[in-house]
Amino acid sequence: xxxxxxxxxxxxxxxxxxxxxxxxxxxxxxxxxxxxxxxxxxxxxxxxxxxxxxxxxxxxxxxxxxxxxxxxxxxxxxxxxxxxxxxxxxxxx
Length: 93
Prior knowledge:
This protein has 4 helices and 2 strands. By secondary structure, the chain is α+β, with helices and mostly antiparallel strands.
């Protein structure tokens, strides 16, 4: 993983100052963000607190038609690397 991150052209691009990342529960992002920061100390690193699971759960509590226009809510499916293949959270349906 360190070699992959060190050779990533998107991360090497000095015009791209911000890095946004998320993982299922947030744990892997914590580890990877530390590594990215070591390799690219000038990057601004942002993570989805609690991972995509927490985000999807919060979005499922808000119906899309009730959402404030200024807020962005996830619509679609989250791919997971286990037999489920996608997360079953879809606005409570």
